[in-house]
Amino acid sequence: MSPAAVPANTTSRRAGVMAVHSVDRVVFSVPEIAAAEKFYTAFGLEVKRSGQQVDLYTHGHPHCWMSVFANGQAKALQYIRFGIYAEDIDAFRQKIEALGIACEPHPLSSGDGLWLRSPDGVAMQFIVADKVSPSAKTPSAPARPEARREAMAPARSRSAKVFPRWLSHVLLFTPDVSRMLAFCEEVLGLRLSDRSGDLVAFMHTPHGSDHHLLAFVKSDGAGLHHTSWDVGSLDEVGEGSEQLRIAGFTEGWGVGRHVLGSNYFYYARDPWGSFAEYSFDIDFVSPAKDWVSGDYAPEDSFYLWGPAVPEWFVVNTEHTAPA
């Protein structure tokens, strides 16, 4: 509803720790661009189209969070770009070279920064950039038109559009959750927040971020499960789900509340079988203290309340490997 504000305290870092500080951009490809333009406009993002590419922004925020390309083929994650601090670039370069995991720049990229490939074959880019992950717990910011006289809810006809504030996190499919955890700890410097065995795991940056900046769920291959977008209230989670249904995007999961991360959620299913999530009130991991991670039974790791999980929620619809 309200324009996005810059996340609090964007200059913070944890002294003496080398780690990526943000998911700077997610890049993937889809069969045709018009469907992407329609879906993300309905979701509430600012969509800037150029030919067969759309760049996605949150309203009022200057950062490009995601780029989607059309190539006439099945949807596929192409690469993820992470932000790092300038003083860490040489140490990151040495680590990547020592481990022998460097790769050529992705052809859809500008080619700058450091390039490497994860054990799942996903290309990753490290680039010196401003921190765009929150560095403090982000406050609620409900913004709605004046209520009906003394009633708390506005008239349905006056409900304003929901505009996400920023990208909170990304969840990826992987055939080996433990292997990706070890890789992200060693190479990206991320730390485990919580996990459920080898089924799902959540990671944060020690420089301060939401409960998870990056997460993994077990599948038969790599791929993008969902991107998660912060909104300012539980009402905005629900109203966002309604604005998508009105726009014709009727499949999704929620509204509900997670256990790990604690956030309220609604996952909207996109035209390619992956998801964009409205997320509100997620736990925050401060750069000033260590988070005590846990390993939870499956029934305690997914959601506290909400509708039954659709069978297609954890289906990996990507059929082509990243370029």
From TrEMBL:
<feature type="domain" description="VOC">
    <location>
        <begin position="166"/>
        <end position="281"/>
    </location>
</feature>
<protein>
    <submittedName>
        <fullName>VOC family protein</fullName>
    </submittedName>
</protein>
<dbReference type="InterPro" id="IPR004360">
    <property type="entry name" value="Glyas_Fos-R_dOase_dom"/>
</dbReference>
<dbReference type="Pfam" id="PF00903">
    <property type="entry name" value="Glyoxalase"/>
</dbReference>
<feature type="domain" description="VOC">
    <location>
        <begin position="22"/>
        <end position="129"/>
    </location>
</feature>
<dbReference type="InterPro" id="IPR029068">
    <property type="entry name" value="Glyas_Bleomycin-R_OHBP_Dase"/>
</dbReference>
<dbReference type="InterPro" id="IPR037523">
    <property type="entry name" value="VOC_core"/>
</dbReference>
